[in-house]
Design goal:
Layout lengths: L1 E2 L4 E2 L18 H14 E8 L5 H10 L4 E3 L5 H16 L4 E2 L3 H9 E9 L5 E7 L7 H13 L9 E7 L5
Parallel strand pairs: 1-8, 2-5, 3-4
Antiparallel strand pairs: 3-8, 6-7
Helix pairs in contact: 3-5, 4-5
Amino acid sequence: MTDVKTGVQILMGLWERPEKVEDWSVPISEVNATIEFCFESYDVFSFYYDPPYWQEAGAMWDERWPGKVVEWPTRNLNRIYYAVRAYQEAIANGEIGHDGDKDFVRHITNAGRNEVNSVDEEGRKKFRLAKLAEHRKYDAAIAAVLSWQARFGRDQKGSAYDFGVSRRSSKD
């Protein structure tokens, strides 16, 4: 989740398959409860999610919070490349902060680059985020990039569960 005013990112939830466990799936009820908490606790103006495996849940979220839920497929090379570049530039410019969550930091540092055989308008090789090693998770890094996009309402028709939010005032 990214605070709109400050640019501070907070990891609201993280679900990882335990080591040496083969038969495991993300606890959808926990994901839904976390998303509901965010919508109840914050003024969420945009929630981006990556649709693979989440089409049914995404339709439910969109029905529950119409106009705020956006499919944002990360498989689209151009979309994810420019989103990651914008995120990298924001980091370099000191626009992004975080609360120091160790899992968030671990996922950010686990993310590497997978260069593809394509260049941008400046001649730079395009890339997408990838695991540096098979056992190293980076899902929160993808979510952070999408949340940064959601902060500005970029690419309205696209998660990774991603929020552009501002904290509700005590008057709400």
